Amino acid sequence: MQTIYPNTYHITHHGAKTGVTGSCHQLDTHHGKLLIDCGLFQGDETKPLNIDFPVKDIDALLVTHTHIDHIGRIPWLLAAGFRAPIYCTEATAKLMPMMLDDGLRLQLGMKARQRKRILNLIRCLTQPIEYGTWTSVANAYGTTADIRFQPAGHILGSSYIEVKLPDEQVLVFSGDLGPSNTPLLPDPKSPERADVLVIESTYGDKTHESIASRTERLKTLINRSLLDGGVVIIPAFSVGRTQELLFDIENMIAKSLTEDEKRAWSTIPVILDSPMAAKVTEQYRAFKKLWSQEAKTTLESGRHPLAFDQCITINTHGDHIGLVNRLKQTGEPAIVIAASGMCNGGRILNYLQALLPDSRTDVILAGYQARGTLGRDIQQGMKKVEISGEHIEVNAHIHTMSGYSAHADRNDLLAFIEDIETKPKEIRIVHGDQKAQQALGELIRQKGLAEKVTLAVDQ
Ligand SMILES: [Zn+2]
Question: By Cβ atoms counted within 10 A, which residue in 64, 94, 259, 292 is the most buried?
């Protein structure tokens, strides 16, 4: 039996309602039910791992991208009985099992056999779709909707999703949108039509520093590290920021250094201490067809933006511990990129534990630090933090560099909305703290960009 709604659609937010984690939105219409993302709650928003809504009559799961706060609850969705198709882009289909494997192992200590069983099921259900291609999703009664994935410029394979209902209404789910002018991936282009737009608002109340200024700041920090030692630590998600950073560092070495600087820089190792990030970087190299024109041109000129000489990958745990100890004892200059991006787990913790007390250390916080994470504590200037049960003094210099964010800022979000040819009837703001949702909502109202603006936080 089909449910009757007063509107022709009904959207329920099973996450990313009052913060930035746990993205999971359910679209119910007269024609069927779709789920968009099924992410994990993190930081202060962490909740017991279960699915508290019925899943058996959902016609499909659409995945915008592979950050764990958008896919991390998929194993629990399966445990709850979900067996419908999972639609995503080709690159997302490749990255998803890798990211989930890592998450299940690290965060839940799940054994290899159990992980393999879950991942095999996910692979069987996954149906990759090329960007820009309409595909029909159906149930026993007929077509639920036609769906199309479009580049979101956030991370490799990321997309916003257009959902066209049989009555021709178009609903668009933004997923996470990338900022404009990042060098590695093309900028997102707005949809022609979005009668309803569900849009993220991570930075709905902020603007990022420019690409030129982020490069200049990173260069200054690296030069200082070369002068008097100390490590530049960059916590980064294994997918997204890591590759943007590698791209930028290679670009700086190749293009914007004086001859003296070049000589000095040739001695500083760029350490990618994350087997996961290394695997993801391989996928970035495999999907060169998705790179921006600038990145393709760099490649054609004979340079290797994601695999340059000074970039060293650390794989084994033994090598990782050895390196942490060496850097602590010698204070030699180095750039270290390690996960997790919000410092709430992973190898970055050992670096912070060893090097935060050293005043020569610089920590660059490039990504969003959710409430309740160690990254947020450090960012807010706490002078003592607890890592693995030990009280650690913070003498390191802490820098927030929003220019490396993989997220659109307020202006990018507004431009994305303004460029939609037909004005949306409803814009629903999700995936942001209350302040960010309210600020973006206010701007949209002031500019008259939609007939109706609703905030997930008020639902
Ligand atoms: Zn994301």
Answer: 64
